[in-house]
């Protein structure tokens, strides 16, 4: 199959649609972030890429902590809203009707309506260009009881949102196509 070169692009799938929370000027604020992912397993760490100009970044740097909230597909409008308006101008919590709670880290507001919430201590920041890579150590994980199956997180119940760059759309997960750490055994001699 012929390939077309697109030049250097940040093209990687799937990108999660996350709501990153921070206390900015004493108020909880949430920014939609698609450029995020797990950075380390032990200790558990996550990274999110945030533009220097974002209102949320101020709060993360000030309080040295933040939250990563995983919204379900039912929150698609709220996710998009938090990605098109700035907390510098509007109260996104009020507009989205978010019920905000706090865990151990008071600067890391948690959205009750999101099935998964990660509390993060700021570990490191790296200014890479347009974005600052914000690395957080996950200090606590909250999950809605109804998103568990046999006591384990069930992604079909969490029903997370995927953001697609080129189409600029939100999607949900697709089919299971294989068992991890297992289906590859079929190619062993
Ligand atoms: C789907 C989607 C994904 C986004 N991903 C990012 C991202 O990864 N990093 C970033 O800095 N901004 C991202 N944005 C833009 C911010 O969410 C947006 O500028 C927001 O209004 C900033 O909020 P704040 O000023 O309250 O921090 C994204 C927006 C959308 C709609």
From TrEMBL:
<dbReference type="InterPro" id="IPR002563">
    <property type="entry name" value="Flavin_Rdtase-like_dom"/>
</dbReference>
<keyword id="KW-0285">Flavoprotein</keyword>
<dbReference type="GO" id="GO:0016491">
    <property type="term" value="F:oxidoreductase activity"/>
</dbReference>
<protein>
    <submittedName>
        <fullName>Flavin reductase family protein</fullName>
        <ecNumber>1.5.1.-</ecNumber>
    </submittedName>
</protein>
<dbReference type="InterPro" id="IPR012349">
    <property type="entry name" value="Split_barrel_FMN-bd"/>
</dbReference>
<keyword id="KW-0560">Oxidoreductase</keyword>
<feature type="domain" description="Flavin reductase like">
    <location>
        <begin position="10"/>
        <end position="152"/>
    </location>
</feature>
<dbReference type="Pfam" id="PF01613">
    <property type="entry name" value="Flavin_Reduct"/>
</dbReference>
<dbReference type="InterPro" id="IPR052174">
    <property type="entry name" value="Flavoredoxin"/>
</dbReference>
<comment type="similarity">
    <text>Belongs to the flavoredoxin family.</text>
</comment>
């Amino acid at each position: 199959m012929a390939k077309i070169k697109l030049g250097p692009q940040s093209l990687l799938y799937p990108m999660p649609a996350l709501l990153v929370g921070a206390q900015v000027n004493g108020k909880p604020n949430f920014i939609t972030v698609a450029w995020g992912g797990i950075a380390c397993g032990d200790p558990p760490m996550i990274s999110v890429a945030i533009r220097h100009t974002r209102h949320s970044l101020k709060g993360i740097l000030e309080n040295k902590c933040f939250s990563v909230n995983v919204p379900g597909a039912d929150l698609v409008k709220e996710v998009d809203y938090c990605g098109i308006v700035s907390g510098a101008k509007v109260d996104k919590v009020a507009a989205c009707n978010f019920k905000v709670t706090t865990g151990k880290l008071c600067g890391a507001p948690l959205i009750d309506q999101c099935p998964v919430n990660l509390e993060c201590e700021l570990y490191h920041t790296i200014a890479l260009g347009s974005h600052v890579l914000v690395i957080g150590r996950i200090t606590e994980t909250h999950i809605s009881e109804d998103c568990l199956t046999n006591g384990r997180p069930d992604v079909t119940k969490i029903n997370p949102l995927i953001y697609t760059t080129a189409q600029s759309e939100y999607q949900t997960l697709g089919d299971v196509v294989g068992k991890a750490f297992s289906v590859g055994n079929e190619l062993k001699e």
